[in-house]
Specification:
Elements (H helix, E strand, L loop, with lengths): L1 E3 H6 L4 E7 L2 E8 L14 E5 L2 E4 L23 E8 L1 H14 L1
Antiparallel strand pairs: 1-4, 2-3, 2-6, 4-5, 5-6
Length: 103
C-alpha cells in the first residue's frame, strides 16, 4: 500500500520513526510525539507498508552518492537515507514518560 509517512503514523496507536543518515549511520528510533522534530517533513516522505512497517521509497531524487541525490536532511543538515515508521508501544510509552518528566 502506497502512502506517506505521516499518514501511516496517524493510522497507528504508538508511532515510532526509525531513521538513519550520515549523522547517525546506525540509526535511531524516536517516538512520534507532539514535540518531535526531525528536520524533514514526514508528509513528504512516500513509501509502502509491508508487514505493518512503513518503508520510505523517495529519499533520493537521483543517483545515490555520498553528497548528492538525497532529498532529505535532519536538523543538522545531515543526509537521511532510511526512514521507517512502525507501531511500538514500549518505545513510545518510555519516551513519552521521559518527555513528560522533563517538561
Amino acid at each position: 500500500m502506497k502512502t506517506n509517512a505521516q499518514e501511516f503514523a496517524n493510522s497507528i496507536d504508538f508511532p515510532c520513526v526509525f531513521w538513519a543518515g550520515n549523522g547517525c549511520p546506525g540509526g535511531q528510533t524516536v517516538a512520534l510525539l507532539e514535540s518531535t522534530e526531525f528536520g524533514f517533513d514526514l508528509s513528504e516522505i512516500e513509501g509502502e507498508v509491508t508487514d505493518g512497517i512503513f518503508n520510505a521509497t523517495n529519499l533520493a531524487s537521483g543517483p545515490k552518492t555520498y553528497n548528492c541525490g538525497w532529498r532529505f536532511t535532519d536538523l543538522r543538515q545531515n543526509i537521511v537515507y532510511m526512514v521507517q515508521v512502525f507501531n511500538n508501544k514500549g518505545t513510545w510509552e518510555s519516551q513519552k514518560a521521559e518527555y513528560d518528566a522533563t517538561y
